[in-house]
Amino acid sequence: MNSTLKTIFTICLLCAFSIAQAEIKIEQTVQSEHRSKDDEGKTVIEYKAIDKLLPGDTLLYKVVATNTGSEPAENVEINNNFSEHVIYIMGSAQSSAQGKNTTVTFSADDGTTYAPAGEVVVTKGGEEQVATAEDFTNIKWVLNFELPPGKSTTVSFKAKVK
Predict the structure, then answer these.
(1) Domain boundary assignment for the chain
(2) Which of 8, 50, 59, 103 has its CA at a distance of 20 to 30 angstroms from the CA of residue 30?
(3) Average pLDDT by consecutive 10-residue portion of the chain (162 residues)?
């Protein structure tokens, strides 16, 4: 992979009680985490274009959702599936919508059902148990606020390469 990965894809919008549809453009980038020490010996973390990946490397996934329409977008859902080659890093999901209500949920069944991280259930050895990060197949953010025309919001998460 020579440069930052970018993917444009369509997402599902749930526009409750809205006749006009907002148009959402999604751009995803994936960068690798690089750690170094500064002159004082403190760890400096930078995210750079992916050059080479090794097991244990940390990746930062950033998704920017931009309302390119003329109407506000409500209840925007941003879905992202996890590659079979990575494991989600628990607690790393973030949203730039400070002070706004953004719901983050996870799936362990390829996006059929979603729940908060500690409530996702899987069956292993015939017994139900709480899913671990290794079990997650998808992450979903629901933006529980209006995204005005021309405005963007960013969500992100980190994952480890298997």
Answers:
(1) 5-161
(2) 103
(3) 33 35 90 93 94 94 94 92 96 82 94 96 95 97 92 95 96
